[in-house]
Design goal:
This protein has 1194 residues and is α/β, with parallel strands linked by helices. 34% of the residues lie in helices and 21% in strands. One of its GO terms (biological process) is lipid biosynthetic process.
């Protein structure tokens, strides 16, 4: 019967088109003419009873005594058998006339057929009279496309099923997060504690709650998936209200409160099952003679905040009527909204959102890597301090500009979010009411209408708030007709996955206060307050309302945003709001989000580094030391040892020769010398002659050497041959160099640029002397101290290795080129000469620690030049006497910050500025960023170089005016850092090493740290490579530790193990697509990683692995169907193949329908490939839902 009903319902326009197509359409008529005519025609004429045809005013009335009308016998027969049926009579009866051509059928044959038909009708009548007969069919459910099998399955489980609705995207999203939470804290499990005054009649309150369920169908739903995996909600005619009652009336108020809190905690921990209605319960707790707490607990998928006052008003009225809903005004149902929603042009709306998000390069994440599963409790809250006068001013500004207060709050958050994340194109979420004006009385409906949508805001520091507010208002208006779109589909349009992790919630729903007051009065009790307990999967929400003036608060998840950080954010948001109120036409970049005290701390206290420095040159200081300790060892190279007297004399002789050849102040001399004692002599000689040395490493490529010599235009080039001459005829006293001062040029070091063209950095004596004075204070040396020199003189840090000992009375132990390349040789030098101070890059320290950590006993270790990995810091700390992390670009005289490494809790900081140095962490508008926020590092003070030799344009772009100290310059490093609470700096990487993969901004150092945390990895480097147009991939390069575990340390298995290792620690977009195992990481002559020498990985496409078992065949088919792909391999990641959360829910439904196995959402997210899911199959439970079986016709 259901099948015939659906067939009839499926005939377009009751079949009127059949004759039109057969006889009046030339194209289709010829096709249909070949088909036979029907042999039986059935004409049901309807009901002709008194009830159906009441008497008319003019006297006409129905005659109920006639039977079914029959066709005239003279008419031609339309078929072998014609049946005309109608319902007639005072007591309605079905009657029928059977007409037939006597030459075709006999009366007996027709009688037999009629008797069989009557018997069938009687059987159907008996069937529909039986208990449980009948039921819904697909045509009864116009809002969903489901099969009869689905309906039958649902009716067996829920006999009271009366309708099926689609789940809205928002409902599906909320339920998804609940499923993902599993048995842990459910952020969308809402608990509302209503404070009730007056004597509460428990029976009446329970009846009122039951009547509330009966009145609103949206509260009587269960959420399930159909056999295609689509989520729907089953509407039941009636469900029993889960009700509990407790009496906590006791003389001890403290005990009662404690008991109430325990009860509430237990209630909140008791989760709802989405497929078991209702997803709502009530608990009445008596706490006093005229006080009670009514606890309404529900899943957020049932209703939104707008619905809450409507429910409260209905509940009070129903309490007053004893549960009689007939005395309440009629209410429209949630299905009206769903009907409207089904008629929207979804494709056009998605195109509108695609246009809105076009060009968006990356998500905006305030708490990158925050795990939605990690919610451990409810939200913490605090108020944003908006003074009343500011709130009133904001109202006036909004009115003058014709924008809403919601727009004002969103604009303020956009600007602050940009400052906190270093973005000028930001996205955050916003809730919209979702109640369209096109749906009659939508404001009075109960249900979940609210929706979360992305808000995109683009601005530059020069824009004004006026322009920003009007633009934001216009964008809202343009998208108003598309507010019904689901967030997962919108995010899919952007192609970036999750777009944001913060939300702006502006509560502006109307509250019928008069109606609530009347309801309270009629009920004889009063709801005096509400204590909500809600949650969210977002780390932070900006919640606001404007009743009567603006109030703003922050709701945050403490596991991701601690209270101190939240308070900082609240204060900064208040400052942005105050700036809008004060002058909306001011540039956005002028808004100060730092408080005066905080600004003074960052710019003043952290930079209070002023120290007296002698106004001397390097030769002045060296000669003073040579006079003080003339016979002490100054330089040790191989088997040669020079005392201070010898070194000074030889340098003086060479200096006279240089002066003789025209060298003087501000003239450069290129030193193309190998590592030797003569190299140190030549450096000192150039400085004594008043010139500036330009080191040229003979091992550098010839093209680079030629460029340096051409660009520097030295007055002289000193090579090995030049120093073989006899200098004995020259005086061994210092030449008299006129006009020598600390401001004159000391050296020019060529450093590689981002374009690959070297650039010469010019540094004066004053900068070098300041640096060495600071280092001498931090690392005091005595005559017995020895410093190992391992760095090429072409790298600026070599100046520390040479000059710090020579200006302090210690000795330089210069390693040969061969020694530097051999860890054993370096270890031998350290032990043989009693070296007490060594400076090196992390690469050098890694080789020493790995080879012979014992040689570092008693050694003070200086680390710099590259990021300092945490594991190396820990290992070095165990071996060396003292470890210091140093940071500084060549453009600021070697090292600018320093930090003593005491613990290895993560990567060590780069510390605080050295003497007479200032460091600023600034945003794009050169405003200081708050502590903890990533910004670019700028360095000012005595160490700042003159600039780049012969490159005025480049110099002007990197050496810029210091906005905080008039008349001073600062150097823009291009390095990303952030302040720690203690005033030290964390180094995060180069701005140009910050790459984007799949739209996400990634710090390569963070991925490198994850690789290094694997026990088998000794060194790691990560880079981004272009695998093709628009296809950028992360590639990891590692050196395996010697003596690793068998198998895992091999180049065959280690890459896969490392990818899994990183995937367990970082988001999937930060997992390298390939890991290459190398015998060693290639280094530049300066000891830094040579990224250009890293080999390209083999990205040869590998054929997808086919399914190996029937189960995997089924899973592969279901994966492909849900993703809309032709096929999928067992190793293909569902989410990397285009899947998202709601598609995952659909797939889980399909798997359940076909295999009878429930896959928990959390399990699926942890095992998103067919191969991985198969490994967990035996652990998965069989679904409580009956497995669907394919139906065949018999």
């Amino acid at each position: 019967m259901k099948s015939v009903k659906e067939q009839l319902a499926g005939v377009p326009d009751k079949g009127i088109g059949y004759g039109l197509l057969r006889f009046l359409n030339a194209e289709t008529g010829s096709e249909l003419a070949e088909l036979p005519d029907g042999q039986i025609t059935f004409n049901y004429l309807g009901q002709f009873t008194e009830a159906d045809m009441p008497g008319r005013a003019d006297g006409w009335r129905a005659i109920t005594t006639v039977g079914s009308p029959a066709p005239d016998s003279d008419l031609p027969a339309m078929a072998a058998l014609e049946i005309s049926a109608a319902v007639t009579g005072e007591e309605p009866r079905l009657s029928a006339e059977f007409s037939f051509p006597s030459g075709v059928l006999s009366p007996a044959e027709v009688r037999d057929l009629a008797d069989l038909w009557v018997a069938a009708l009687e059987g159907l009548a008996r069937h529909v009279s039986a208990p449980g007969a009948g039921g819904l069919t697909p045509s009864d459910l116009p809002l969903v496309k489901v099969s009869q099998q689905d309906i039958d399955r649902w009716e067996r489980r829920h006999p009271a099923l009366v309708d099926v609705w689609p789940a809205t995207p928002m409902q599906s999203g909320l339920l998804f997060h609940s499923l993902l939470a599993g048995s842990s804290f459910d952020a969308y499990h809402v608990q509302l504690v209503l404070h009730v005054e007056g004597t509460v009649d428990a029976d009446r309150m329970r009846a009122a709650g039951q009547a509330l369920l009966d009145r609103h169908a949206a509260l009587r739903t269960a959420f399930v998936t159909d056999s295609s995996g689509q989520q729907v909600q089953l509407v039941l005619e009636r469900v029993e209200l889960p009700w509990r009652e407790y009496d906590l009336r006791t003389p001890d108020a403290g005990d009662a409160q404690d008991a109430l809190e325990r009860l509430l905690a237990q209630d909140h921990a008791s989760h709802f099952r989405p497929d078991v209605p209702p997803l709502l319960r009530m608990t009445l707790v008596h706490t006093g003679a005229d006080r009670a707490e009514l606890v309404l607990t529900a899943h957020h998928a049932l209703f939104d905040g707008w619905s809450l006052p409507l429910l409260m008003k209905d509940l009070l009225r129903l309490y007053g009527t004893g549960g009689d809903a007939s005395r309440l005004p009629r209410t429209r149902g949630y299905s009206d909204f769903l009907t409207w929603l089904a008629g929207r042009d979804r494709a056009e709306s998605l195109r509108a959102w695609a246009r809105e998000l076009d060009g968006l390069e990356e998500p905006t994440m305030l708490v990158p890597g925050a795990d939605a599963e990690a919610a451990r409790g409810g939200l913490a809250q605090l108020e944003v301090p908006v003074p009343p006068d500011v709130a009133r001013a904001l109202s006036r500004r909004a009115a003058a500009l014709g924008v809403t207060m919601s727009t004002v709050v969103q604009a303020a958050w956009a600007v602050l979010l940009g400052r906190l994340t270093g973005r000028r194109d930001v996205v955050f979420g916003a809730t919209v009411s979702g109640r369209p004006h096109a749906v009659a009385e939508a404001d009075e409906m109960v249900g979940l209408f609210v929706n979360t949508l992305p808000v995109r805001v683009r601005y530059s520091p020069g824009d004004t708030f006026t322009g920003l507010l009007t633009a934001l208002h216009d964008r809202h208006a343009a998208l108003l007709d598309h507010h019904h779109c689901g967030l997962p589909e919108i995010q899919q349009q952007a192609g970036l996955g999750t777009l944001f992790d913060t939300l702006v919630l502006f509560e502006s729903y109307p509250i019928d206060r008069t109606g609530l007051t009347e309801a309270n009065t009629a009920a004889g009790i009063a709801i005096t307050g509400i204590r909500p307990s809600t949650g969210t999967h977002y780390p932070l929400i900006v919640a606001a309302d404007a009743a009567p003036h603006l109030r703003v608060g922050l709701q945050f998840r403490p596991e991701h945003v601690d209270e101190e950080r939240a308070r900082d954010i609240a204060r900064r948001l208040a400052r942005v709001l105050s700036a809008i109120a004060a002058d909306p036409d001011a540039p956005i970049g002028s808004v100060q989000i730092l408080g005066p005290a905080e600004r003074d701390l960052l710019l003043g206290e952290y930079n209070a580094t002023a120290r007296p420095v002698p106004a001397d040159t390097i030769p002045d200081l060296f000669e003073r030391q040579a006079k003080a300790t003339p016979d002490a060892a100054a330089l040790i190279f191989d088997d040669v040892t020079l005392t201070y007297r010898q070194l000074d004399a030889r340098a003086n002789q060479v200096a006279h020769w240089l002066v003789e050849h025209g060298v003087g102040p501000e003239q450069s001399v290129a030193l193309a010398l190998p590592r030797s004692a003569d190299l140190v002599v030549a450096v000192l000689a150039v400085l004594k002659a008043g010139g500036a040395y330009v080191p040229v490493d003979p091992d550098h490529p010839a093209a680079r050497t030629e460029f340096v010599l051409r660009d520097a235009e030295p007055a002289l080039v000193v090579d090995t041959e030049a120093l073989t001459r006899d200098f004995a005829r020259y005086p061994d006293t210092a030449p008299d160099v006129r006009h020598a001062s600390a401001d004159q040029l000391a050296y020019v070091i060529y450093t590689s640029g981002s374009t690959g063209t070297p650039k010469g950095v010019a540094v004066a004596h004053a900068s070098l002397v300041n640096f060495l004075s600071a280092m001498g204070e931090r690392f005091p040396l005595r005559p017995h101290d020895r410093m190992l020199a391992v760095t090429t003189m072409a790298f600026d840090i070599a100046a520390l290795e040479v000059f710090l000992p020579l200006l302090s009375g210690g000795a330089v132990v210069m390693a040969t080129k061969e020694d530097v390349a051999q860890p054993a040789a370096l270890a031998g030098l350290i032990e043989r000469h009693g070296v007490t101070l060594v400076q090196g890059t992390p690469s050098l320290w890694q080789t020493l620690v790995s080879h012979d950590p014992g040689c570092l006993r008693g050694v003070r270790a200086l680390v710099g030049g590259e990021a300092f990995p945490a594991d190396l810091a820990e290992a070095l700390g165990r071996s060396a006497a003292e470890v210091t992390n140093l940071y500084g670009p060549t453009e600021t005289a070697i090292w600018s910050t320093a930090a003593r490494v005491t613990t290895a809790d993560g990567a060590p900081p780069i510390g605080r500025p050295i003497a007479n140095t200032r460091v600023y962490v600034l945003d794009e508008g050169l405003s200081p960023v708050p502590p903890g926020v990533v910004g670019e590092l700028y360095i000012a003070g005595a160490g700042v170089a003159r600039g780049y030799v012969g490159r005025p344009g480049l110099s002007a772009g990197r050496f810029v005016a210091d906005p905080f100290v008039p008349g001073q310059r600062m150097y823009r490093t291009g390095d990303l850092v952030r302040w720690r609470p203690d005033g030290s700096l964390d180094y995060l990487g180069r701005a140009d090493f910050q790459v984007k993969v799949r739209g996400y901004r990634i710090e390569l150092g963070e991925v490198e740290a994850a690789l290094l945390s694997h026990p088998e990895v000794a060194r790691a480097v990560v880079t981004a490579r272009d695998a093709g147009p628009g296809d950028r991939r992360l590639v990891g390069y590692v050196v395996s530790r010697a003596g690793g575990r068998a198998g895992e340390g091999s180049t065959a298995t280690l890459p896969a193990a490392l990818r899994e290792h990183v995937a367990a620690r970082l988001p999937d977009y930060m997992v390298p697509s390939a890991v290459v195992v190398l015998p060693e990481i290639p280094l530049t002559p300066n000891g830094k990683v040579d990224r250009r020498a890293l080999p390209a990985p083999d990205h040869t496409p590998v054929a997808a692995r086919p399914p190996r078992t029937p189960r995997e065949e089924t899973l592969c088919r279901l994966f492909a169907e849900v993703l809309g792909l032709e096929r999928i391999g067992i190793d293909d990641n569902f989410f990397e193949s285009g899947g998202h959360s709601l598609l995952a829910t659909r797939l889980i439904g399909r798997i359940r329908a076909e295999t009878g196995v429930d896959v928990p959402v959390r399990t699926f997210f942890g095992h998103p490939t067919v191969a991985a899911l198969s490994t967990r199959w035996t652990e998965l439970t069989t679904s409580v839902r009956p497995r669907l079986r394919k139906m065949t016709e018999e």
